[in-house]
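1st attempt posting a full record on here, be nice pls
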Amino acid sequence: MIVLKDIEKYVRTGLNKSWLLSDVNLEIKEGEFVTIMGPSGAGKTTLLNIIGMLESSSGGDYFFLDEPVHRLKERRRNELHKQYMGFVFQAYHLIDDLTVYENIETPLLYRGIKGKDRKSIVANMLDRFNIVAKKDLFPDQLSGGQQQLVGVARAIVHKPRLLLADEPTGNLHSKQGEEIMELFRDLNNEGVTIIQVTHSERNASYGTRIIELVDGGIRTDKAVRQPAGASDTVQAPNGN
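the predicted structure (as tokens):
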């Protein structure tokens, strides 16, 4: 699904370059549940944003579903992003002046789904996440855990093949965080590929593979368990 070759990222400060990522080589197969860990400043969120096409690398090659992302025009990257990816953020990123129902519906509006179909799809999401009673509330009327549930529902309502999560339980207490991670595991078992950034060893244990980033490069890449339906052992790309 994802192949990264010699990915690098830097920002310029005057005449100098500050490196965020360097020589990242990585392959992620469909159906994996990958955790990216490492100290603050290691480049975790930068790598996630590059994979999610929220920002571009400074060099290297990126292939997503065999398409050369590093060569694509912005319009095509946006199409891939919208069609195949969902995002869950630590800060929820719900739209304050939209209800729970409207927040979940938003990705379907962007995709031009007809009103009748949208209604059915959103109703299924509300039921699945047990938030039917919250559908007319606004984000500031919800607890943190409820807001994150809405965020996850919004991220998967269009059935993405790849779910990207940046510290998805960072603002939640342990019980709420456990509920989100159980939900992620269920989604992965249903075939959704997941890449999460987290500092939590507990959260990492839900995945199939852990990648440790240090100083912008991959230090270790190890399998935790087999992806659902997989038979091959996950191995790090050569050089990592």
